[in-house]
Every structure is written in C-alpha cells, then in structure tokens.
Specification:
This protein is mainly alpha-helical and 252 residues long. The protein is 48% helix and 5% strand. A three-stranded antiparallel beta sheet has the order 1-2-3, with no helix packed on it.
C-alpha cells in the first residue's frame, strides 16, 4: 500500500475492511487459513450528519438567481426552495402538502411529520407569496384534495427525485455545491436558527427532532461555516418583513 496523509475517511475504512473480509473468506474457502482474523475488527462508527452543510447567503442568492421564473416549473422550484429554506421541513413534508393543509388567510400550514403525527406551523409570508405566484402561473384551481406542488397529475405531488435534479442543475449553473439538494436546504435552515442565537430547544422543536442529542449532533456538523447566514439572506432576498405577500393574488 502507498503512504497515506492523515486519517482515512470512514467510507474508506469501511471499504478496506470489506475487502479484507472478502480476502479471508476466500482464503478459508481455499483451505489456506483455518480462521478469519477480520471478524474481530469492528467497523468504523459512522458520524450522523457527517455531510451536513448549510449554504451561505451568497450561495442562496446565486441559487435563486439561477432558477428561471418565466415558466410555471421554474416558479414551482423557486417556491419549493423558499419553503425548505424558511420552514426547515423534510423533503416529503413539503412535497406532500395538499391545498387543504394551507390556511392562506390565517398564515399557517399543517403537515405530517416523520413520526406520523400531524403538526401546524406558521407559513412564512415569502413562501406564501411564492406558492400563490406559482399556482397562478400553473392555472391551479387550489382544490382541497389536490397537491400544492403537483406533477403530471393535479392530485399527485411532483416526484422528489425530479425536483432534486432540477435543483442540482440550477446549483451547477450557479456554481453552488449541492450534494444532497433538498436536505442541504434543511441544513441551511438549522444553521440560520443558530446564527440568530435560537436556543437549542427551539431548534429541536423546529426540526422535529425527538431529543436534544440528535439536534446537538446535527448542529455540530454545521459549525465552522463563518457566514452570518440569516441577516444577510434576509437582506439580499428582501425577506425581512414579508409585507410584499399582502398583495399576492388570492388573498383578498
């Protein structure tokens, strides 16, 4: 083997151990060894959220600028990006929204969490506006049972992989690294909360984590990214007050 600089990554250690075990299984099957010493080696522990990364305000601005808004699909993607950035919801929790889940006048939405429980949260005005602009451009009738973000059929949500690919293309155009497109937006939300010094318990509740330990691990992976995310993002995107949403179509 060649020389290595620094410790091996968890994935490299796992791959090396798998290769070693395959070798000793072969050696035993050929009668070359009576035992398998690799069985005594424990696999490396994977650090939860090891690849967690939040976007900077500049990256968010570039990403949004790269999304074409001259068409309904582009407006849909922009609405989804804002929804993930400003609510911190998981992929399915946003994609599965129905119009009956939105109270546009009251300014809140309902969703079913990972644990199967239904919850209610405030709907940020910029997200509300983006959804209505998309719905108007797409000619959606906003029937209660229909998907807020439909694909080919109005009663079925758009495919998450398709949206992820659209987002990846926009990110590539903007020069923004997005290894896990939709989940990176959730990471960005968590990072923003900590940047404005939200208590750990608030972050836990916002992310629907079952315990503080999970939230602590999650946030620890986001530390060290020096951009003061939330104030800059709000200023660049004009999201400080959300007053512009009051004139959105369908809110009279």
């Amino acid at each position: 083997m060649g020389d290595w600089e620094g410790p091996l990554s968890t994935s490299t250690q796992t791959a090396e151990l798998a290769a070693l075990r395959r070798f000793y299984r072969w050696a035993r099957s050929e009668g070359l060894r009576p035992d398998d010493p690799s069985q005594g080696i424990k696999p490396p522990r994977r650090e939860p959220y090891a690849r967690a990364r939040g976007l900077s305000a500049e990256e968010v601005a570039r990403l949004l600028a790269a999304i074409p808004v001259e068409s309904a699909p582009g407006l849909r993607l922009r609405a989804l990006v804002l929804a993930y950035l400003l609510t911190g919801r998981r992929r399915s929790e946003v994609l599965n929204l129905r119009w009956r889940d939105l109270d546009l006048e009251g300014g809140f939405y309902r969703y079913t969490g990972k644990d199967g429980k239904e919850r209610q949260r405030a709907l940020p005005p910029p997200v509300r506006l983006a959804i209505l602009l998309y719905a108007d451009a797409a000619g959606l009738e906003r029937r209660p049972e229909e998907a807020v973000f439909p694909g080919r059929w109005r009663d079925q949500p758009v495919d998450g992989k398709y949206i992820g690919e659209q987002l990846r293309q926009a990110a590539e155009l903007a020069g923004v690294p997005l290894e896990r497109p939709l989940h990176t937006l959730r990471h960005s939300y968590a990072r923003a909360l900590r940047r404005v010094e939200a208590p750990l318990e608030v972050v836990q509740a916002a992310l629907d984590h079952s315990n503080l330990a999970t939230t602590s691990i999650y946030l620890r992976q986001l530390e060290g990214q020096e951009d003061p995310w939330w104030p800059k993002l709000a200023a660049e995107l004009g999201l400080e007050t959300g007053a512009e949403a009051s004139s959105a179509p369908g809110l009279g």
